[in-house]
Amino acid sequence: MSATITTASGAKFARILSTGSYRPERIVTNAEICEHIDSTDEWIRDRSGIIERRYAALDETVVDMGAAAAAQALERSGIAPTDIAMVLTANVTHPYPTPSAAAEVAYRIGAVNAGALDIAAACAGFCYGIGIANDLVCGGSAKYAIVIGVEKLSDWTNPKDRGSAFIFADGAGAVVIGPSDTPAIGPTIWGSDGSQKDAITMTQSLIDYRNTGGEIFPALTMQGQQVFRWAVSEMPKVAGRALQAAGVALVDLDAVIPHQANMRITDAIAKALKLPSDIPIARDIAYTGNTSAASIPLAMDRMLAAGEIPSGGTALLIGFGAGLVYAAQVVTLP
Amino acid sequence: MSQQILEGLAAIVNEVAGVPVADVQLDKSFIDDLDIDSLSMVEVVIAAEDKWGVKIPDSEVKNLKTVGDAVTFISANS
Fold it and tell me: How large is the ipTM?
C-alpha cells in the first residue's frame, strides 16, 4: 500500500506586487553605432524607432543588473527577502552555462530561502516567468516569487553586423509576485516553433568557436524580415487569445506592453489589433533599445513611474523571440 | 481579374505606407518608385496573403520587384 502524500495548496490568485528596474549609465547614440556600420541615424530611427540605447560597463554583469532591479522591486513590495521562495531570472546572456544567474542574484538580494533558476526563453522570458510564478503561487510551491528579466546583449552583439548592431542593448527589470484576494494574472498563452530556430540565433556555438579557432566571437544574428513577418502576423492572434482567456475586452485595457523588439513591430501589432488611440502601447525602445527579456518589465516600470499607465490598471503583456517562442497574459498593474 | 488585384494592392500599399492609390501602377518598383522599404513590403505581403488567400514565401518576396510582379504572382496563385 502506498503512503498518503500531502500536496501543496496555494493561494487562489496571484498578482504583481511591485516593479523595479536598472538602466545602465552609458548612453550609446546612433552616431556611435554608425562608427562601426555603414548606416545613418535617420536609417536606424526609420527602421527601428531607436534613438539611443544603454550599454552596461565592461565589468558590469547580468547578475549585477538583475540584482539591482530585483532589490528595488523587493524594497517597493515591502516583502522580506527571506520570504521569497523562488527567484526566476529570464535571460540568455549570462556567460556561464552553470551556475545560474538566478542563484547568485538570490544570494545578493538576501533571498537565502529561495529556489533559483534561469529561464532561457529569450525575449519572451519575462512573460514565461510571470506564467510560472503565478502557477507557483497558486500551486502552493511559493508564497512569494521574484521574476527578473535581464540582459547584457552588448556582449553578444557584433558591432559590425549592419542588421543587428543597432538593435540590441542592456538592462534589467523585475517584479515581485505574491498571493492575491482577487484575480490579477490571466492565463498565460504560450508556444514555440523550433522549425524557425535559425530566425534569431548565434553565428556559432562557443564550442565550435573554440575548436575551429574562429576569428569573430559568436554573436547574435537575425533574419530581420522573417522575424518581422512572424511577429506581425502571429502576435496579434496570440494577443487575442490571451484577452479571450482572461475574459477581458481590448477596449477595457489600460496598457499594452509588447516586447520592445522594434518600433515598426509595435506599430504593426497596434494596427492589427485595431488598438484605440487612447490606450497606451509601450514605446520604451526609443531610448532603451531592444533589451530582450528585460524589455517588458523595463517598459512597465517606466510607464508606471511616468504616470502613463495607472496602478491597478489592466495591461496585456506579449513576449516573443528566439526559438521561436512566445508568451502573453493579461495582468493587473501593481 | 488583374485590374481588381491592382486596385486591391493599391489600397493595401496606401494603408501600409501612405502611398497615394493612383501612384500604384503596374510598372512601378516598390522600392525605387514607391519608397516601400523591406519591412513595409512584408506588411504588404501579409495583407495580400490575407486578402487573396495566397501563400507568398519569403524566398518569393524578393522577386516581387514591381507592382506588376506582385499582381502576376497573386493572379497565378490565388
Answer: 0.84
